[in-house]
């Protein structure tokens, strides 16, 4: 009896291009921000920070306007769903699972604190400072710089957790890294997948909004 | 009326340490008092540098404000040079960021301090001139002396 040929591997989009670009640009810029900060290359450090401000604004916008798996409404679930997921009682839809969703929010919140305090931070000599530091006192700017340092440690912890989780899934034969690069996942059996519905023009609008706000912040809202 | 400006933390710290010195003529001011005065002094200088930077960034700098800030920096530079007596480093048990090289390489430290005094003196001169571009350049030159000394003689923050 002739055996059936193996079924063709069918794929579907998991992450839209803006999500993937956001992710990898953020990885690169975080590394560069760390390096430039350590080297006291503050002009570069500020530029990198403005780029991250733009990325964050875009990502929040994309959380409402993006493809299905990019949207907060799709992956932000209550604690019950997260607990059920941990206990293996929750069948997650493709995309961030309920625990991963909280991890995304925690990372975004920490990054917001990071760049938010950086904008107001002043160094101990009053020489280097964020673009909004002239709106606050020296003491407030110093406090912002201290929180900026503390938030970096929190961010490192979250990144470590993120990487460990990816490795755990890898050991359990689920590769999360590939889809974040090429954007596709393999469909199981007879599964049918709806398109993500990410729109080019909406992405363009988001880029313009994010770039404009980041530029205005970098100027300290002074447009003379 | 006594101007309230007269009572800044550094003055209180200095008065206290002087007071202690008078009360116990044999004893020098305690390391704790010196470190407190030193840190308050640097903080005041940092604050004045920020005032200058903010003025320059505002696009409409006020000359009197910049002159006052430059004078604070220049006066502070001269005061700070006196606040590093032997035995006031971290080894005194008082937590501070001054590295042992301040005392082991004293000549280089004093030279670095002298540069700060000279550049901050010029800062007052250009501030009085009122040319924003020149003030900006001298702000950088003065800040450069801060940074150079800190890289060599202060623990990484």
Short description:
By secondary structure, chain A is mostly helical. Chain A has helices spanning 17-38, 42-65, 72-75, 79-86, 98-120, 138-171, 177-182, 200-218; strands spanning 11-13, 184-186. Chain A has 8 helices and 2 strands.
Query: What is the count of DSSP helices of chain A, taking H or I runs of 4+ residues?
Result: 8
Largest sheet of chain A: 2 strands, antiparallel
Number of DSSP E strands of chain A: 2
Find the structural class of chain A using helix and strand composition.
mainly alpha
Could you spell the SSE succession of chain A in H and E letters? EHHHHHHHEH
Could you report the average pLDDT of chain A, rounded to the nearest whole number? Answer: 93
**Radius of gyration of chain B, in angstroms, nearest whole number:** 17 Å
Roughly how many Å apart are the termini of chain A?
82 Å
Greatest contact pair? Answer: A-B, 17 and 20 residues
| Percent of sequence in beta strands of chain A | under 5%
Shape of chain B: elongated
Q: How would you state the average pLDDT of chain B, rounded?
A: 86
Q: Which consecutive residue ranges of chain B, at least 5 long each, have pLDDT under 50? A: 1-6, 20-26
SSE-based structural type of chain B: mainly alpha
Oligomer: heterodimer
Number of beta strands of chain B: 0
Strand content of chain B: under 5%
Return Rg of chain A in Å. Answer: 21 Å
Termini gap of chain B? 41 Å
Task: Give your account of this protein's structure.
The complex is a heterodimer of chains A (224) and B (157). With 224 residues, chain A is an all-alpha fold. Chain A is built from eight helices and two strands. Chain A has a two-stranded antiparallel ribbon with strand order 1-2. In chain A, helix 1 (17-38) runs antiparallel to helix 2 (42-65), helix 2 (42-65) packs antiparallel against helix 5 and helix 5 runs antiparallel to helix 6. In chain B, helix 2 packs antiparallel against helix 3 (63-81) and helix 5 packs antiparallel against helix 6 (132-153). The N and C termini of chain B lie far apart (41 Å). The chains are: A mainly alpha (224), B mainly alpha (157). Chains A and B meet through helix 6 of A and helix 2 and helix 6 of B.
């Amino acid at each position: 009896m002739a055996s059936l040929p193996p079924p063709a591997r069918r794929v579907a989009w998991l992450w839209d291009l803006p999500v993937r670009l956001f992710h990898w640009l953020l990885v690169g810029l975080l590394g560069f921000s760390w390096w430039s900060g350590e080297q006291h290359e503050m002009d570069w450090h500020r530029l990198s920070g403005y780029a991250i401000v733009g990325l964050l604004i875009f990502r929040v916008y994309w959380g409402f306007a993006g493809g299905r798996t990019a949207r907060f409404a799709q992956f932000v679930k209550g604690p019950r769903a997260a607990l059920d997921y941990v206990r293996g009682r929750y069948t997650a839809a493709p995309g961030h699972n309920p625990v991963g969703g909280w991890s995304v929010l925690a990372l975004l919140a920490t990054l917001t604190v990071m760049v938010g305090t950086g904008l107001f931070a002043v160094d101990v000599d009053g020489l280097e400072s964020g673009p909004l530091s002239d709106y606050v006192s020296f003491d407030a700017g110093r406090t912002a710089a201290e929180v900026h340092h503390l938030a970096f440690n929190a961010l490192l912890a979250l990144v470590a957790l993120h990487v460990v989780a990816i490795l755990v899934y890898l050991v359990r034969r689920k590769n999360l890294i590939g889809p974040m690069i090429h954007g596709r996942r393999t469909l199981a059996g007879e599964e049918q997948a709806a398109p993500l519905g990410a729109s080019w023009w909406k992405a363009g609008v988001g880029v313009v909004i994010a770039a404009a706000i980041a530029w205005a912040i970098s100027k300290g809202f002074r447009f003379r | 009326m006594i101007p309230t400006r007269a009572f800044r933390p550094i003055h209180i710290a200095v008065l206290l340490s002087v007071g202690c010195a008078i009360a116990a003529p044999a004893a020098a001011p305690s390391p704790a008092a010196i470190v407190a005065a030193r840190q308050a002094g640097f903080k005041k200088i940092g604050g004045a540098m920020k005032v200058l930077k903010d003025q320059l960034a505002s696009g409409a700098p006020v000359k009197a404000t910049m002159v006052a800030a430059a004078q604070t920096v220049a006066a502070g530079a001269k005061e700070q040079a006196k606040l590093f007596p032997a035995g006031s480093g971290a080894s005194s048990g008082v937590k501070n960021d001054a590295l042992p090289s301040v005392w082991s390489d004293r000549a280089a430290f004093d030279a670095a301090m002298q540069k700060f005094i000279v550049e901050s003196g010029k800062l007052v001169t250009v501030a009085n001139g009122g040319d924003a571009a020149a003030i900006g350049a001298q702000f950088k030159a003065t800040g450069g002396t801060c940074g150079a000394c800190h890289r060599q003689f202060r623990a990484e923050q």
